[in-house]
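Good morning,

Both structures are done.
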Amino acid sequence: MRALLQRVAEARVEVDGAVVGQCGPGLLILVCAMPGDDAATAANLAAKVSKLRLFKDEGGKMNLSILQSEGSALVVSQFTLAADTSRGNRPGFSGAARPDEAEALYLHFAQCLRDLGVATETGQFGADMAVSLVNDGPVTIWLDTDTS
């Protein structure tokens, strides 16, 4: 799986003008399932995300996890994280998992975060979403389970 984490003051996702998910201070997590990923991959990624020290402590250093900072998460499925731009000018997305597998893994990842104690909301899989965020930092971290 691939994930792009952005530390945010707030974030929300709308579908057809209606808010379907939001978070306060915490993480906006764009996530993409890849072929070969499974429930264990999603659970391991969620565990990693929950422990990453991306939030400031009282001294201003990034020493706290999302759990320690009592932050929340907004998880949004984004198959475009699998973009192959090696040929031509039009990205290819054949490196993303099939939609039925991707949706199940996306939802499992979000549930794993909840099970770990992170207040988590989601976007709407497959929808045309408008994502709004206020970056905090900015802090942006790329995770790929094949390399992390």
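Second structure follows.
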Amino acid sequence: MIKAIIFDCFGVLVQGTLENFIDQYLSHDEALVAKAHDINNQCSLGFISYDEQIKEFSLMARLSIEDTHKLMDNNPRNTALLSFIRDELKGRYKIGFLSNAGENWMDELFTTEDRELFDDVVLSYEYNLVKPDAKIYELAAERLGVEPSECVFIDDIYAYVTGARDVGMQALQYKNFAALKSELAKIVGTK
């Protein structure tokens, strides 16, 4: 029986910018793409700050720090999904938030009402763990007071979906809101 639904942030609850930045400025060089993912991972693990990540990205893309910030900090909220969580899921399921993140930017991305939707928040840098490490999924379930097998995890990155499945969670790859709503209904019976 599903007792909790855990959501990724970037690419699910808000529009992600990392892959767009890489595609636009670094995709011409595989070494730069790999380096960008490594720097992002270091930030998500809490080993470097977000400002250090932006500085490195600006050097790699040959952009100003200000322009790099503007590109990386543009994360519109997925209002349809947040409304669905509020109207259909909250109260029926524990709602978790699990993100590879280099710092806590919840106040910048979400309203107070949005943040209140989540029964627990796991940000990778606080635990020096990143998806798809099995320990971070297990931690998210534990903090919600449920077993991994009682969770559905939703992420836009296939490797992270696979990581959740590997610990016994049901998991869905987010493509768009309509598809998620339909796929989730098959698992938990929502409309």
